[in-house]
C-alpha cells in the first residue's frame, strides 16, 4: 500500500459553530444599525421529519439573532393559497429569506412554488434564475448543503485549483450545484450517477470525492485514491446490532486508512446545511440592499 497521510476526521459541528458565530457577529452589527434580518420558513402539512427540520432552522435563526417567521399551513392548502402566502412574503420588507420546506404534498406543483419565490429571497438557491446564475459563475444565492461542503473542502484542502473532484449523484439539491461550485473553484469535475459504468474506477481518480447518493456504506476502500478528501453528504438510517443509527454513503471504517480527511455521519455535512441557511439569509439581505441601491441610482427622484 502507498504511504498514506494521517487521517483527519472533518468536524462539521465545529466548523458550523464557527460559521454561526460569524453570522451572529454580522447580525449584531446590522442590528446596531437598526436592521434585523428576517427568515420565513413555510411548512405545508405534518410530515414528521419536516417538522423537526423546520424547528431546528427556526431555533438556529433565533440563536443568531435573525428574526424567524414560521408559516405552518394545513396539508390540504391549495396551490393558489400557498402562492398567495409566498407573494405576501416576497413583498414583506421584514423578510429577507424565504424557505419552503420540501417535500410538498402531492397536489402541489413544487416547481411553480419554488419559481414564485423572489430570486433575491431564495435562500435555498432553487429558483431557476439562481441555478442559471450559479452555472454562469455569477454572485447568486446557492444551495446550502453544497455551499457548506465547499467551506469544509476549503478548510481541509486550502487551494482547490486543479484538483480532480468526483461528485456522486446529480440531484438539483446537492449533486448538480456541488459540481457547479467545484467547477467555479477551478477543480476538474466529474459527475457520476446511477447509470455510470464502473463507479469504483471513476471514483479512484478523485483527489476530492463528494457522495450524495443515499445508500448506506455504498463506498468502500476500493473506491478511494490514497490521500483523497472525502465529503459524505448521504444520511441513511439503518438498523444495526438491534438499534437504529445514522450512517453515510461511505463505509467510514473501510475508508479511514485511505482518506486524508473525511466527514463523519452524523457530525459532518449535516450541521453545515443550517449554518449556510443563516449565511444565505445575510447574503440575501445584502443582495436586496444592492438592488435597492441600484434602483435609487437609476431613478434618484421618485418616478
Ligand atoms: P436524490 O435521491 O435526489 O439523488 C440521489 C442521486 O444518487 C441521483 O442523482 C442518482 O443518480 C444517484 N444514485 C442513486 N443510486 C446510485 C448508485 N447506486 N450509484 C451511484 N449513484 C447513484 O438525493 P439527494 O436529495 O441528492 O440526497 C442524497 C443524499 O444526501 C441523501 O442521503 C440525503 O438524505 C442526503 N442529504 C443530506 C443533506 C445534509 O444536510 N447533510 C442535505 C440534502 C441531502
UniProtKB/TrEMBL annotation:
The keyword Plastid does not apply. Its EC number is 1.5.1.5, 3.5.4.9. PROSITE patterns: THF_DHG_CYH_2. InterPro entries: Aminoacid_DH-like_N_sf, NAD(P)-bd_dom_sf, THF_DH/CycHdrlase, THF_DH/CycHdrlase_cat_dom, THF_DH/CycHdrlase_CS, THF_DH/CycHdrlase_NAD-bd_dom. Keywords: Amino-acid biosynthesis, Histidine biosynthesis, Hydrolase, Methionine biosynthesis, Multifunctional enzyme, NADP, One-carbon metabolism, Oxidoreductase, Purine biosynthesis. Coiled coil: none annotated. Residues 143-286 form the Tetrahydrofolate dehydrogenase/cyclohydrolase NAD(P)-binding domain. The keyword Transferase does not apply. This is Bifunctional protein FolD. The gene is folD2.
